[in-house]
Amino acid sequence: MSRRKKPRKSRKRLAYGVIAVIFILLCFATYSYLNPPNQNTSNPPPPDQLPSKAAIIDHLSFKEETKNETFQNTSTSILEAAGFNVTYYPAEKVTVDFYRNLVSQNYGLIVFRVHSAIIYGLGDNRSLGLFTSQREDESKYNTTSAPYYDDVANKRIVRAYFPDDPTTKYFAIAPAFVDKYGNFSNAAIILMGCDGLKYNRMVDAFKRKGAKVCVGWDGLVSSPHTDHAITYLLQRLAQRNTVEEAVEKTVSEVGPEEMYFERQGYNSTLKYYPSTAGNYVVRCMVSISSMDIVQASTILGEEEKRNQTKLVVRTH
Fold first, then answer.
1. What global pTM score does this model have?
2. Domains in the chain, start-ordered, CATH in brackets?
3. How far apart are CA 84 and CA 53, in angstroms?
4. What is the largest CA-CA distance in the chain?
5. What is the rounded CA–CA span in Å between residue 133 and residue 59?
6. Which residues of 107-129 are buried (b: 16+ CB within 10 A; e: fewer)?
7. How far, in whole angstroms, is CA 23 from its chain's centroid?
8. Phi, psi angle pair for 11, to nearest 5°
9. pLDDT tens digits, the chain, 316 residues: what are they?
C-alpha cells in the first residue's frame, strides 16, 4: 500500500501564517518603541503623580513683632523646590469660616504658624486652642439663629485674648471644632505655636480626621525660635527624611526653646505624634539636595525674643 504525501499547499499556508504573525509582532514592537507610554501630553498624569498641595497659615503675621517675611519666603521656596503647590494665607484670612473651609482644599501638608494656648474652662485644661484673627462678636452666637451659636454652645469655638490686651477678645477653635468639621486625610500637620504637643487633645482630633502625623512643641515657644526650627524641619522633610529623622535632626541642630524654663520648669522641645508615625515620609515630587536648600535668616536677637507675648485662651 502506498503512502499518502501531505499536500504542499497546506505547508505553504502554515509558513505564510507564521511569517504574518512575526510581521505583526515586529510592527507592534516598532510602534511601541516609537510611541512609549505617557508621551501623549494631552492626557493628564494620574492623580498620584500630580504635585502635592501645601498651605502656610500665617496667623503670627497678625502682629508687627511676630511678622517674619523671611520665614514666609524661605518656607515657600523649600516646599516649591520639593514640588509642592504652596498657598500662603496671611493673618487677615484666618477666620472661623477659613478654618471650617480649610478641609475642602485637600492639602497634603499644612503649616499652622498660628498663636495657640491651652484652653481653660473645658473641664480638662488639656485642650489646645488655635487663634483666629477674627474679633469676638456676640451677635455671632447670642441667639439660636446666630451662625456660631451651636459651635459656641458646644465649646467648638472659644474666646481667646493676649495678656497685654485682655479687653480685646478673639475667636479660637478647639479640638471639638476639628472633630466636627475636619477632613485631613493623609495630611502632615505642623503646629508652630505654643503647647501644640503638650497634650494630645488637638492632635488626636487631627488624627481622628485622617492626618498621618502632627509635629509641634511640648510647651511655650517664641516666634523666632519656632521660625528657625520649622524652617530647618521643612528642609529635612523635603529631603525625604522620615518624620523621626527630620525631628531629631532639627532638635539636634536648632535645640530646644530655653526662654521659658523658669516659667514652666523645662525647655520646650519639638515632638511628633503619634509615635507610630516616625517612619512616615512626606510625599514630595522632588527630593531636594543639601546644595539646593535655601538657608533661612530667622534667628533674632535676645531682646526681640523678650518681646514675645504669652497667650491665653478661655471658654465663653
1. 0.78
2. 48-314 (3.40.50)
3. 5
4. 121
5. 7
6. bbbbbbbbbbbbbeebeeeebbb
7. 54
8. -65, -40
9. 445 555 555 555 555 554 554 555 455 554 444 444 443 333 444 444 445 899 999 999 988 899 999 999 999 999 999 999 999 999 999 999 999 999 888 899 999 999 999 998 777 889 999 999 999 999 999 999 999 999 999 999 999 988 788 899 999 999 999 999 999 999 999 999 999 999 999 999 999 999 999 999 999 999 999 999 999 999 999 999 999 999 999 999 999 999 999 999 999 999 999 999 999 999 775 665 554 554 443 333 343 444 444 445 554 4
Give the three cell numbers for residue 104: 475642602
- 148 bridge partner residues: none
The C-alpha atoms of residue 172 and residue 315 are separated, in whole angstroms, by 9
85-90 β-sheet, strand order: 85-90, 53-58, 109-113, 188-191, 213-217, 270-273
In the numeric block, the cell 473641664 is attached to 123
CB 113 within 8 A of CB 59: yes
> Cβ contacts of residue 45 below 8 Å, gap of 6+?
38
The secondary element (H helix, E strand) that includes residue 119 is strand 116-120
Q: Is the peptide bond before 51 cis (omega within 30 degrees of 0)?
A: no
Strand partners, 284: none
Beta-strand relationship, 165-173 and 157-162: antiparallel
Cis upstream peptide for 274 (omega within 30°): yes
Q: Return d(Cα 160, Cα 136) in angstroms, integer.
A: 8
Distance CA 158, CA 177 (A): 10
- The three cell numbers locating residue 99: 478654618
Distance CA 22, CA 204 (A): 62
